[in-house]
Amino acid sequence: MIHTIDLHYHAGLERQEGLTLKHYLEHAVMTGRRVLGITDHLDLYLRPQQVLTNPAYSQDLQGLLALRADLDNVRAEFPSLRLLFAPEVPPSFALADIPQPLVDAADYFICEADLAAASCSANTLSLQERFQEMAAFRAATGKPIFGAHPLRHAVNLHLVKAPIPPWLRELSLRESLVFTQAELRRFSRLDPVAVGQTAVECGIPLEINGNTWERARAANLPAPLSIMLAIYRIWQACGVQFVVGSDQHAIRRSVGRFGGAVPWEVCDALGIEASDIGFLEGI
């Protein structure tokens, strides 16, 4: 079952106050996960822009390596979990600048791209260049790497961080998932075909991200979800390999246990099963 694989699970400096790594691993077991990629944003440790109060780890390279050490120390207590260590690299961080001790410690890397440009062509080029950088990094280090939440910027732009534009509110649900290229580009701020082709050429898997999907669902509009599925279908047709991750940070709210989910229903719609996550074979 695809929900047993979660390759994007925050549990270091970004875990909730008062909770330990063990709490997060216990939550993973209770919620059916079996393969777990423990991550944290690299820029909380290296070149931190935010100084945390009473952080669980020091905000430097040694702190990130301490998270890896903690993971190894509790591994035996969670025999049902395949535990992996996967730092998340922000858009501003060049992969060549990752310190060698961290390269050695990581099982794989999660990599974001800068998609803040106003134009579709600029964002597409930025993502293509990041794919090429990722492929070069993998060749130089031998470490697997995948592209993180490639539709996050679009969801944030249209549905989360600004008023939802009228054109998107008025767009009808299309169960056929047939949209014009203009509609797909307008939403994603990308050329989906060019992105898919470059991902395949570079051998870079793309993430179906649970947090991004939930942000879009929270807008209560069916059309954006249909557009996202249509883009995933285009990438699938191009031959893109996918990975899945919840991108979960918090595991509790006032009502009790309330974390994030692996987007299994998206995978179901695309016909993706656990055996299709070939990325795991390279770890």
Short description:
The protein has eleven helices and ten strands.
Please explain how this structure is put together.
- With 283 residues, this protein is of the alpha/beta class.
- It has a single domain (2-278), classed as TIM Barrel, CATH 3.20.20.
- The protein is built from eleven helices and ten strands.
- It has helices spanning 21-30, 61-74, 100-105, 120-141, 152-160, 166-169, 181-188, 192-202, 210-217, 222-238, 264-270; strands spanning 5-10, 35-39, 82-85, 88-89, 109-111, 145-147, 206-209, 242-245, 252-253, 256-257.
- Helix 7 (181-188) crosses helix 10.
Short descriptors:
single chain, 283 residues, alpha/beta, TIM Barrel, 3-stranded parallel sheet, 11 helices, 10 strands, 41% helix, 12% strand
Rounded radius of gyration (Å): 18 Å
Q: Helix- and strand-based class?
A: alpha/beta
Average residue pLDDT:
96
CATH topology: TIM Barrel
CATH superfamily: Metal-dependent hydrolases
Q: Which runs of at least 5 residues are low in confidence (pLDDT < 50)?
A: none
Q: What CATH architecture would you give? A: Alpha-Beta Barrel
CATH class: Alpha Beta
Count of DSSP H/I helices: 11
Number of strands: 10
Spatial ordering of strands, largest sheet: 1-2-3
What's the number of domains?
A: 1
- What general form does the structure show? globular
The end-to-end span amounts to: 19 Å
Order of helices and strands: EHEHEEHEHEHHHHEHHEEEH
The proportion of residues in beta strands is: 5-15%
